[in-house]
Specification:
Layout lengths: L1 H7 L9 H37 L7 H22 L15 H32 L14 H4 L1 H20 L3 H18 L1
Helix pairs in contact: 1-6, 2-3, 2-7, 3-6, 4-6
Length: about 190
């Protein structure tokens, strides 16, 4: 329900405070920045670890931290890519369909994505709970749950994104296109 409420922010005619829209835009910016920082830190940690191992001083915890950061960067980046319509797709046949059929097909695709995301959320939280006592080899005080939590939490973010896209799918084309460009600008601002 919260996802549909956030999606309603972008529906014309509904009185939603501008502060919620600002919070969402700020969240998108933070999410993109966090994904980039996690990816950059992963590369840096792996590079430093490889160099230090070459000189005979291995960093035991480097791969564990890199795994943690890379997992978060992947799933945060997936939401950013989904929001900006940068996911890989093959639309050779899709673009040849009539606009109304394209809209129906897009809705079906979004609903399939939504089903998979809900499975990721439910099973991801179960997995996170099951891994609460598992620890990293190099860092015995850090629970592996921090890695597995990236799946359900980022899937919640993607559900919100898909809800917004479904709402926009049923708006008039000119208004939806203008808002999509505005949201893409927010995403690119954070990069």
């Amino acid at each position: 329900m919260a996802a549909m409420y956030l999606a309603a922010i972008f529906v014309e005619g509904i009185m939603i405070p501008a502060s919620i829209q600002k919070i969402y835009k700020r969240f998108c910016s933070i999410e993109t920045t966090l994904a980039a920082i996690c990816l950059g830190a992963t590369v840096l940690i792996i590079t430093v670890s490889a160099l230090s191992r070459t000189f005979g001083y291995p960093i035991n915890f480097a791969l564990d931290i890199a795994l943690l950061l890379f997992t978060w960067s992947v799933f945060l980046g997936a939401d950013t890519a989904l929001r900006a319509d940068k996911m890989v797709n093959v639309d050779v046949l899709f673009k040849r369909l009539p606009p109304k059929v394209q809209k129906v097909m897009q809705l079906i695709i979004y609903l399939i994505i939504m089903a998979f995301l809900w499975m990721f959320i439910i099973l991801g939280f179960k997995l996170s709970y099951l891994t609460r006592f598992r620890v990293f080899q190099g860092i015995p005080t850090l629970s592996y749950t921090w890695v597995t939590l990236s799946v359900p939490l980022c899937s919640v973010f993607m559900v919100i994104t898909v809800c917004i896209k479904i709402v926009r799918l049923f708006k008039p084309a000119a208004k939806a296109d203008t808002e999509n460009k505005a949201q893409t600008a927010v995403v690119e601002e954070g990069v």
